[in-house]
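Summary for the funding panel

The consortium committed to producing paired sequence-structure records for every protein in the target list. Below we show the first two records in order, beginning with the earlier of the two.
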Amino acid sequence: MKRNNICLAVLLAVVFQCFILEAKAFDKQPSYNIYPIPQKMEIGDQSCNFAQGSKVNVVAEPLIDQVTLDRARQILEDHGFEYEFSDSYKSGCANILLGVFRSNAVVDKTAGQWKLDRKYLEAAGEQSGMYDAHILCLTNSGLLNKALGKNSRKESEFVAQVLILGVNTDAVFCGLASLEQILDHTSTPAVTIYDWADVKHRGVIEGYYGVPYSAEVTKDLFRFMARYKLNTYMYGAKSDPYHSRYWGEPYPASITPEQERVGYLTGDMMKDIAETARQNKVDFIWAIHPGKAFAEGTDKDVIQHIMNKFESMYSLGVRQFGVFVDDVGVSSDPKLLKLCADNLALLQNTMDNKWNKKGAVPADTVKPLQYVPQLYAYSWVDRAKGRAFFSSLKNVPEKVNIYITGANVWSVPNNQDIDHVRLGDDNDGLGLGRVPGWWWNYLCNDQDMTKLFISDMYTNFRDESHIYSTSRIPADVTLKTLIVNPMQQGELSKIGIFSVGDYAWNTSAFNSMRSWEVAVPAVVGNERAQDLFNIIPALRYYDSDEFEYLITRYKQSVERGRPAPGALIAELKKVNASCIAIKKMKDSPDESDRLFYKDIRPWLLKLEAMTKEAALLLEKKHPEFAASSSYRDIPHRDYEKDPDFSFEILGGMGEHIEMAERTAEPSAKCLLPFIQWLREQN
């Protein structure tokens, strides 16, 4: 598993025992750096060591599925442990116990013997808005024996004992993600974590206009999502012709290298993607875009044609589907609104009759339909038209998840928009009658293709031209589904996706800057984190605040007749050195590193060239500040046309997909004009 080394120092240890009943808030008791931030955590002052030279004994109840067992194996192997599976707890060695609440099986009973507080598991569910609830207790033999009133043996006093009890096997899978991060730490004090997610479905919607992600990037994202408890990925790549233009046709058996370069996928690739999602407990939702054929009845057999495609995707391992009719125009014709709602209900019922009959094997069933309607940003129409539209969907089966983006296309999730769409006439609402899912166009750069959004969330808000720069996300959002539409650069999007997952898990504890500071090393590793921190501000279109300040200060010093370029030269060289360091990811043995470099390459190479030229031009202008004579050979790059700084995009959807090139724009507002000014000065 990628990124097992994001260890950070334990900030504070507070004495406790695993069987203490009252949990304390995380923010009041900093400890392990586990992300997403757990809901409740207690830390003890005693170590819990895994015995050297002995196998870890893993006990898993029958309700723990194979994917969760494989995840446990993977974590132990990645951390260098030998292990064995058995049916019972073994004294004198490290044990990891995995069980399901109320199963009355061995681990469930053991949790009762350990006197772990189950009130959070009892409360979990749709009514409470607590999802994937679980308890993780890491204790040692001495503490455990003391709790059980037994005499402890000295040689086993500090041997680690782990119990993870979840409301189901998926919740135990989430608990293993916390255990994985605990094992990344060099010191492992006792801890009990009572944890759950505030948002049920958390993840990504690949729905931007641009080059679809390659199979390699998509699978890498799934592995990243598993580590940080994200569980939903909806595939609706606008420029994938088999999502839109050829929506009724199966994926091809083969594609050309040119087609693969622009995001085409074969059936085997899609099968591999679906299987990787399953292995990482990510609900992979394949969405179809039949457009007017579905919404306006231009195809009388549209349901059968959609089912034919769904059956093709089902054979590839897909077990959840979506229908998109976005961006085809919002009708006000009551007959067409009714037709669209009837089609949606008929499709869900047809799917249920085929795959969800009573007695069906769970692995063969399909999950509820996901629907993106024509009117997803309700401010496009007046209230009467909006009410007619959303109320027409009110009687669609309740389990169908209907998405909005809020009042506007780029709105930040908020309760006001959710309630306005959900509530009916009595509350002056639009009458959908259910909590909508939220398609969040955050990180998405399909309208800002030359920009990257890899800063903290609120800096990104400031930089994205379509998001209100002062937006803030609420601490008590009442969503069940939150999926983000990321950048065309999937690996770079991990930084923002990390923070969205952090927010969706524990909304009240979210801190934008703190989350970002952990996200960067989570994505590139501790060894490269500082270099990436150094360059991220300068990768912004609007430049780093430091560049803007130092350039302004330098020009003022020139005007005063006392040039002082030293600080600016030092900053330029620092950023340049970090660009060179990040370039080494190109040759990394780790696939994630290589994919990351491929995404960042045009911006990185351009920033490297710009900082080098600016520093050398300053040294030429002020030789007394030059560290060497290198300024005599100053490269003058064409920052608008140099192919090193360009990248490909796809625009449009359906029959209107076109290839184009764009030029990366890091530090475009201050540094680039400054270089031109320096050229003129020299």
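The next record, for a separate protein in the list, is shown here:
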Amino acid sequence: MEDLHIKYLEGLAERYPTIAAASTEVINLEAILNLPKGTEHFLTDVHGEYEAFAHVLKNGSGSVRRKVDEVFGNTLSAADKQSLATLIYYPREKMARVLEHTENKNDWYKITLYRLIAVSKRAASKYTRSKVRKALPPQFAYVIEELITEKVDVRDKESYYEAIVQTVIRLDRAEQFIEALCELIQRLVVDHLHILGDIYDRGPGPHIIMDMLMAYHSVDVQWGNHDVLWMGAATGQRGCIANALRICARYGNLDILEEGYGINLLPLATFALETYGNDPCLCFGLKGDPPASSSERELNIRMHKAISVIQFKVEGQLIREHPEFGLESRALLDKIDYERGVVTLDGKEYPMLDMNFPTIDPKDPYRLSEAEEQIMERLEKAFAGCEKLQQHMRFLLARGSLYKVYNGNLLFHGCVPLNKDGSFKQVELYGQTCSGRGLYEFFDEYIRRGFMAADPAERKRGRDLMWYIWLHESSPLFGKTKMATFERYFLAEKETHRENKNAYYTMIENPETVDRILEEFGLLPESGHIVNGHVPVKTKIGESPVKCGGKVLVIDGGFSRAYQKETGIAGYTLIYNSYGLILAAHRPFESTESAIENETDIHSDSIVIKRVWERKLVGDTDIGVQLKSKIADLEELLEAYRSGQIVEKFAGGF
């Protein structure tokens, strides 16, 4: 063991070959430990609402405006500060509008540049110069560094800065420079972004959001059930494909597949018109009132019904193939009396609202017709062969997981499945019994196997398990007694639509239960928090996102427009900076145009969840733990140099 340690120190000596080099690095790392911790930004359940998502990214859930307020206080009016904040969010667009009505552009450039330089200085103050340098836009990196770095050796600083600003304006580079400063501020106010699941479904642009995330400087993702659904679809898993396509059809978002991912839906459209052309498809109206012509809506509705019927068939096949999933009660096509038009659920008969099923054979209801089989074969190949979709899924696998422990907080999308007494629910699958943290890790491992396992049988198990995770009551990402898709389409009785939530959602007000969960994931109950989404917080009926005295934060407030009537709000986001935890509530996002023209912001109220007595430093974070470990190693290396165990290396030789 001692030999291995010496080898490790020798490897470290390759990077720090002298006492001077190792000492300098220790000094640098000690300095970093004493900087304020970076700001973390938490978002969840964005559901394809890319314009609102982009706006929240740009404003950092109020972080940009707070920086503007810190810098200018009462020296600028509220209107001027809001105008400056809007410029930082949308520099190019806002600048174009302002300059249309500005007589002396050079004066405006000068005033604006000085204001942005002041905000940039404040935003950069908590980082090392090296980290700021890496964030600088290449074309203006040197000039911006000069302007935001204190110059103690310059006698007349004001003249020095004035000369730089005037030169930028004289060379007609002011607009590009303003844009670069605005983007730098956006980059610096948030150090790390957490996405707590459900990027996909309902909204029109999940693929656009994925592109934004892939370009973001520092991000992790905790997968939601809608994300895992698309991950399963990307592997060619039929149950996941049918569900993903049905949801796109239901919300009028088939463009995501056709234009966003280039998946050809013509075979499905042709089949839908031929099979359901004379069917009014009354049970399959679109949600959210998407913009479309009447003919487009008619086609969409018929495609919606066609893929829904296919989904119920495919899922019935999966349920029969996997009795270990325990989903027999959710195979419902064989529970229909096709002559009387009723279905039997839990021993009770209910009249069906729609009985036009030309492709269903009552004697073998789960068998796909020849045309349906051809459609599914083509869709399997299209999803599995779509390079852009595969690229997005590789990003989710690389940056994502089912849960994350980060700086004393436990992050996940849904719930930790519990029994009614608050104990961890035992789940048996594929010969293993898991609960709590072990259940999360079991599912995480099998999701990755669904993409990467060399054994085809294991790969199929992983892929089918992604469908299980999407809708099973024992799934930590779903956590309800059933997914009542069939009932909501075909039955009028509201009692059949009920999806009872797992005990977790009531037990999270119980301190003992919350402490047990935190301990299960290796966190200290006295300081840890749970942050999750999945179930929208209905603010308009008095629900609060803050549970268990602030130990649990459920931050799904309804980013999705389809849910805002129920929630009365457009989502919650969370900020964790060096001063504590701040919960931000958001108004519904009207449009990017309104945000620029009217300077409307969707951030409305902030709730301080936890304020620390002493400002948190990098040394108090997970990164701080890693840096302290590195310092300890470097100090051992220094001791090895001084004791003669390892010899310093000097450049140039002898």
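Regarding this second record: The two ends are 34 Å apart (CA to CA). Residues 294-321 form the longest helix (28 residues).
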